[in-house]
Amino acid sequence: VLSNKAAVLLENDQLVKAESVLDKAQGIAQVIGLIDHPLIKNEGILLAKKEEYQRAEKTLTGLLAEVDSTNLPEVAAINAAIANVLTKTDRPRKAIAFLEAALAADQWAGFYRGMADDLAAIGAVHRQLNDYQSAGDYYQRSLKIYALIGSRDKVAEVLDRLEEIGEMKQLDLTVTKHFVERWLKGEADGPCE
After folding, report:
1. CB-based contacts of 99, cutoff 8 Å, min separation 6
2. Quick check: 144 and 155 in contact, CB under 8 A?
3. How far is CA 181 from the centre of its chain?
4. Which of 79, 99, 127, 145 has its CA 20 to 30 A from that of 111?
5. Which of 3-7, 29-33, 39-43, 49-53 has the highest mean pLDDT?
6. DSSP string of 87-156?
7. 38-66 burial by CB neighbour count: b if 16+ within 10 A, else e?
8. CA 136, CA 151: separation in Å to the nearest integer?
């Protein structure tokens, strides 16, 4: 429960509160002799958010080697967290491999939101590498999933990124925009409904 609370706090960038909750959870885990992988993952994410990238990478890569490979949500989350550290430390090409591993785990788990997040993150890395065509392709795939699962905020965010790329590299977004506009008007049902 504390690890989940810390995850929510981390997602909302409440680092001081997250660190306090993680310290409390660590103390409990030590007393009962528990190795809690989600707790360790959240510690790695906290280190990354505090820009302690070397410690974060060491924590997360060590955890990835230990976590049960059939625990697909954890595998995906850890790979995505490692990719974030690699991106922040100017190793985007290496980050792509971890994001692809996260995507594969989310696909096997059937976790659509995770797939969309992974695709958007891969798009962002390609954009960082000035590979606008690949970035646009990944963003479009991500956008369609976000639209189908009803994530309006993410639709708007990714559409903005796509339009920026479209203006720079003259990508044709006609079909994608049509799909999104129909969805936003409620004229098209998705397979997730």
Report:
1. 79, 80, 83, 118, 121, 122, 125
2. no
3. 25
4. 127
5. 49-53
6. HHTT-HHHHHHHHHHHHHHHHHHT-HHHHHHHHHHHHHHHHHTT-HHHHHHHHHHHHHHHHHHT-HHHHH
7. bbbbbbbbbbbbeeeeeebbebbeebbee
8. 19
- Give DSSP secondary structure letters for 26-68: HHHHHHHT---HHHHHHHHHHHHHTT-HHHHHHHHHHHHHHS-
**Residue 12 and residue 167: Cα distance in Å, rounded?**
31
Neighbour count for residue 173 (Cβ, 10 Å): 18
pLDDT value at 106 more than 90: yes
pTM for the whole structure: 0.86
How far apart CA 113 and CA 137 sit, in angstroms, is 17
d(CA 14, CA 5): 11
Residue 59 · residue 46 · CB < 8 Å: no
CA distances from 138 to 49, 69, 126 (A): 25, 26, 9
